[in-house]
Design brief:
Length: about 325
């Protein structure tokens, strides 16, 4: 028997979950504080519209996908697991490490599945990149850098770092297999008191280095993860078409008579099976519900991501309209 899922939060990302779950044949209900919005999706997708306060006590709901403003994620996730529901929580899972830890602890105490929506972990190109790293095709990984740039979206509670970086940090942690021992952040706030540009500099054990750059005020889109190893370099570029999403550069650098020499080779593009990351993520969630196995992107991983975000956050003075100052 297939589990019956509900989506709480019918905004932009919640609507993607709604349509994908409908395609997987497990969408049972939708819920939103905006009753008209929920009823519109319920009519469109031929499912139930349930008031948020009534959702957690429904016996006909087995699991809930939470796609809310992040300041509500931890509280609603805790309510869901304590009501006996498995949960998939969109990123960021909370705005503080303490809130995330309480929600994850509640899920463990209740014996419920707790998964976080770090969707790019399920991108076929990233999964292939990870397999190349694990097989030693790049040699020893020495440096990882990620750029996630574009225009928008703008939030009142979380900045460019917290909105854009969780996916990349999840991928970086999957490759390194460990947390950084040092994190340094830089940020610039142009619109108000939240960083519109943010950098993270990380040092991992064995002196592996990492750098992440996010921006929500950039004139062009960039979605690129680069892994530099001792034998080769690989680039996962999600802006490129499928046949060019994963490139491997087999450059060589060496010393010759006291001088540095190098060869720069053209990239070889790795064949990647096409597939929608969100569909694959939700299929993984359904498999975890069925088998009771821990998700690849579980609550503990989400806490590790939040620790890095917290350490790298740069506070800014609250925005003031200077024209009104004395």
């Amino acid at each position: 028997m297939k589990p019956r899922l509900a989506v709480l939060g019918c905004g932009y990302w919640g609507s993607n979950h709604i349509r994908t779950l409908k395609g997987l044949g497990v969408l049972h209900a939708v819920s939103d504080l905006n009753k008209a919005r929920a009823e519109g999706f319920a009519s469109e997708q031929d499912c139930l519209a349930i008031e948020p306060e009534a959702l957690f006590s429904r016996d006909d709901v087995d699991a809930i996908v939470l796609a809310l403003p992040p300041q509500f994620h931890a509280q609603m996730a805790t309510r869901a697991v304590q009501a006996g529901k498995d949960v998939l929580v969109e990123k960021p899972v909370a705005l503080t490490v303490a809130d995330a830890e309480r929600a994850v602890a509640a899920a463990k105490a209740a014996g419920r599945i707790f998964m976080v929506g770090h969707v790019l972990r399920f991108h076929p190109a990233f999964e292939k990149l990870k397999s190349l790293v694990d097989a030693g095709e790049l040699g020893e990984v020495r440096y990882i850098h990620s750029h996630r740039l574009g225009l928008g979206k703008f939030h009142t509670e979380n900045d460019a770092l917290w909105d854009l970086a969780p996916h990349d940090l999840s991928m970086i942690l999957a490759i390194t297999g460990t947390e950084p021992i040092e994190v340094r952040g830089e940020g610039a706030a142009l619109l108000d008191h939240l960083s519109d540009f943010a950098h993270l500099h990380m040092v991992f054990p064995n002196n592996l280095r990492g750098h992440l750059f996010t921006s929500r005020l950039n004139p062009y889109r960039e979605r690129r993860l680069t892994v530099v190893g001792t034998k080769a370099m690989a680039v996962f570029d999600d802006v490129e078409p499928w046949e060019r999403k994963l490139a491997v550069y087999r450059h060589a650098v060496w010393q010759d008579s006291g001088h540095w020499a190098f060869t720069a080779n053209e990239p070889s593009y790795v064949t990647v099976e096409q597939g929608m990351p969100l569909t694959r993520e939700l299929e993984h969630f359904l498999e975890c519900i069925r088998t009771r196995r821990e998700p690849a992107t579980d609550g503990e991983e989400a806490i590790r991501v939040l620790r890095i975000l917290t350490a790298g956050t740069v506070p800014h003075d609250r925005f003031r309209d200077k024209s009104k100052s004395a």
